[in-house]
Design a protein that fits this description.
It is a single chain. By secondary structure, the protein is of the alpha+beta class. 47% of the residues lie in helices and 14% in strands. A six-stranded mixed beta sheet has the order 2-1-10-11-7-6, with no helix packed on it. A four-stranded mixed beta sheet has the order 5-8-9-12. Strands 3-4 form a two-stranded antiparallel sheet. A hairpin with a 2-residue loop joins strand 1 (49-52) and strand 2 (55-56).
């Protein structure tokens, strides 16, 4: 768009010199990843700037709070090796099998298999495995770049396909940077007192663009190889510099990560693993700050086409709200944990226990059914990609804003108060206190005390601890808070058509003239 070049000077003297790498130079830093161990090693020695607890972290891969989130992503690679039918798909783009998290969906069945993989990974990790937003970004960018090209004669779709070929060949992780800090919610991006409260183009050169701002609540941002920055909301003509989509390597100059706190996160730094609840796996959210970050033209997929921002967000939510089917995998873990602790307590035969487990399962499968239905009802877009049924996707996400909380309440009910009063692992290991605790906290005689400790801590971890972030609060606010889904349901519920069905059956004719 020639008109966009004139909006911001070719160069602003920021005092910072950035190396304007080409797309090829950036891809040259990557090596193909085959296994989970390859993935872990790919994150080492990147020289990224990360802050946690007021300190810069030298090597994030080895930090005890960060490593469980890396392990969760590692599992997405391992599952592709263990169960390729579930976690891989054949890519027509490179004519080879690829991780399903990098697959361009070509049918409703692709979306169904995506949902089944997401549930399985929830079962295996008990946490957020941080790749769903990136996968849904891949899907929405396919159609949006195509549509922009059709209207404006741009070459965004070809750039997208070229990027995806490299992404699939190298088997990388793409993170989604959508949510801006937003500042004063009563004002549009261009009206903010501080323009950086929404990510925007800060300057342009012959080789590309520079962006300034931040992306908040970014799931797995630090653990991603690349970040796709996108608009967060509807844009007007005055917001054109904020209507930008770009692909940025996670180690690009000018990026700073500030790690988000999670409840009970410092338990990861304690000795032992029982009190951690889920010592192996965890989620991750970061604030990602972009300080004059360069993006070469080859990796710019929207630059000023503000009229497509709202549709891009709408399509993203159609994909991503159905992706919250992943919470059914965590729900399966919650049902299992609640049933196990009831067994360890000797209460598994009680009718009320069975009834609560049935209710937990009913709620969990209700989430799954709406997500799968949304995928089965997917329809093709002009670019050739399929998109979830938006109404059912919003119903799925609206269920997710409520049902995990009730499932968690029932799990806490069955676990009992000991879940939050249990002494520490160190006390159980103490020469004096330990024997007392093992005497008085024995449940069924044939169940080791340690089993009971571990199961109680798992329930605590998922309902109150660090993985409650991924199971509860993320379920409430991720991909839009409950009101966002209610607005979309209102827009799509076709009440006038349904009133017509009722009038026909009631024998009401010429209803409009009668009302007049």
């Amino acid at each position: 768009m020639a008109t966009t070049i004139d909006r911001i000077p070719d160069r602003i003297d920021t005092g910072v010199q950035r190396r304007e790498e080409s797309a090829a130079e950036r891809w040259a830093r990557f090596a193909p990843i085959a296994t989970g161990e390859d993935y872990v090693e790919s994150l080492r020695n990147r020289g990224v700037t990360v802050y946690l607890f007021g300190e810069r972290i030298a090597e994030p891969v080895d930090h005890p709070i960060i490593r469980p989130s890396i392990n969760a992503l590692k599992r997405t690679y391992d599952l592709a090796v263990e169960d390729p039918e579930l976690a891989t798909a054949h890519s027509l783009l490179i004519d080879a099998p690829v991780n399903r998290f990098l697959h361009i969906v070509g049918s409703p069945q692709d979306l169904v298999m995506k949902n089944r993989m997401q549930r399985r990974l929830g079962q295996l990790t008990g946490t957020c495995f941080q790749r769903c937003a990136g996968l849904d970004t891949i899907s929405v960018l396919h159609s949006i770049t195509y549509d922009i090209d059709q209207k404006h004669g741009t070459s965004y779709h070809r750039r997208y396909l070229d990027f995806m070929k490299e992404a699939q060949r190298n088997n990388i992780i793409l993170g989604a940077g959508m949510t801006d800090p937003k500042g004063d919610r009563s004002k549009r991006p261009s009206e903010q007192a501080d323009p950086d409260l929404f990510l925007h183009v800060s300057r342009r050169t012959e080789k590309g663009i520079y962006v300034q701002g931040a992306k908040a609540h970014m799931t797995g941002g630090l653990n991603s190889h690349w970040i796709a920055v996108m608009p967060t909301m509807n844009m007007g003509e005055q917001d054109r510099d904020y209507a930008v989509v770009g692909l940025v390597p996670g180690d690009a100059e000018g990026i700073t990560y500030i790690y988000g706190r999670q409840s009970c996160d410092t338990r990861a730094m304690e000795a032992g693993d029982i009190d951690k609840g889920n010592a192996q796996y965890g989620g991750q959210e970061v604030l990602v700050v972009f300080d004059d970050v360069f993006i070469p033209h080859e990796h710019v997929l929207m630059d000023g086409e503000y009229e497509f921002a709202q549709e891009m967000v709408a399509r993203f939510t159609a994909y991503h709200r159905a992706s919250y089917v992943c919470k059914t995998g965590l729900g399966d873990v919650m049902v299992g944990a609640a049933a196990a602790i009831a067994d360890y307590n000797g209460a598994d035969a009680a009718s009320h226990v069975k009834d609560k487990l049935v209710e937990m399962t009913h709620l969990n499968e209700t989430i799954f059914s709406s997500a799968i239905a949304s995928s089965h009802e997917a329809k093709p877009l002009p670019s050739g990609i399929f998109m979830n049924d938006a109404m059912l996707a919003n119903v799925c996400k609206h269920n997710v804003t409520r049902f995990p909380y009730e499932i968690s309440r029932l799990a806490q009910d069955l676990a009992g108060g000991l879940m939050v009063t249990l002494p520490s692992e160190q006390d159980f290991d103490h020469d004096v206190a330990g024997p007392m605790l093992k005497k008085y906290f024995q449940g069924r005689a044939n169940v080791p005390i340690e089993f009971r400790q571990r199961m109680l801590r798992l329930v605590e971890n998922m309902t109150l601890g660090r993985n409650a972030v991924g199971y509860l609060t993320e379920s409430l606010h991720g991909a839009g808070s409950p009101q966002a889904q209610r607005i979309q349901i209102l827009r799509g519920m076709e009440v006038e058509r349904k009133k017509g069905y009722a009038r026909d059956l009631a024998g009401i004719r010429n209803a409009e003239s009668d009302a007049a």
